[in-house]
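Researcher: Structure for this, please.
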Amino acid sequence: MVTPNPHLGDPTTAKDVFNGLGRAGLKITPNTAFAGAAGAAVVTRINATYLNWPLDVTQYRTAADLAKKADWESGDAPGRGEPPVALAGYNILVTWGPATGAKPLVPDARQAAALDELVAALDRLLSPIRTRSIVPVQTVAVSAAEDGPSAAPEATPAP
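Model: Predicted structure, token format:
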């Protein structure tokens, strides 16, 4: 049986990522969406809700445009006034959680489990992803090559 490759192309669209999260079984409620101005770095932003926290899927024109905005290293912690979770892959930035003036909120146990599901779904769509989170995030770089054979077998000498 052939399994379709879930990876999206680079660049991709916010709509394709949002739909992919839905296909992964995440219960995300869309609220609003807007298109950026012609020639702007942001093409589209979808504002949604995931487990009572705001979730935004932002599409940049290119990965380079996103890199200018998300200039943090994977594994960095967010700072004051930033959402607790930011995930970046290709030209897409996904943020989750309220951006308050204080230290970012820590997800409760239910949200922590949902974060694992969100990261796993995004890993399948946009791998590799960079993470910036108030709590540790585990990613598994999924590649199209994983559907193929493993390394060639090696002969072992007889005893």
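Researcher: Any notable elements?
Model: Helices lie at 14-23, 63-69, 109-126. The mean pLDDT is 84.
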